[in-house]
Fold this sequence. Notes:
- The chain has about 110 residues and is an alpha+beta fold.
- It has a single domain (about 5-95), classed as Fe-S cluster assembly (FSCA) (GMP Synthetase, Chain A, domain 3), CATH 3.30.300.130.
- It is built from three helices and three strands, in the order αββαβα.
- The protein has helices at about 5-20, 65-75, 100-105; strands at about 40-45, 50-55, 85-90.
- Strands 1-2-3 form a three-stranded mixed β-sheet, covered by helices on one side.
- It is globular and about 40 Å long.
- The mean pLDDT is about 90.
- This is SUF system Fe-S cluster assembly protein.
- InterPro entries: Fe-S_Maturation_MIP18, FSCA_dom_sf, MIP18-like, SUF_FeS_clus_asmbl-assoc.
- Pfam families: FeS_assembly_P (PF01883).
Amino acid sequence: MSKETTEIDTAELGEKIVKVLKTIYDPEIPVDIYELGLIYDVFVNEDNDVKILMTLTSPNCPVAESLPVEVEEKVKSLNAVKDAEVEITFDPPWTQDAMSEEAKLELGML
């Protein structure tokens, strides 16, 4: 397999992962976690192992235990994904500035 094909595949897989992330909502805010800016990075290696670096709206978020598990499970459900791991970070801490324009509009902040 040429390197070019692999890059396209990982880019396509990245887009599919983002679509899945957009189906997961913060239970306290009616906006998906991607638009909220909780996803800091998505890494896909050539073996289709996925690592997601994300944060929560606060360290004592009520879904601190369940949300990362939900993210891992939904991403792993994609056929092309071999494995998925979620790493939670609070550096930098989440602020409302991380939200997309769409999220801010949805919450009446614009």
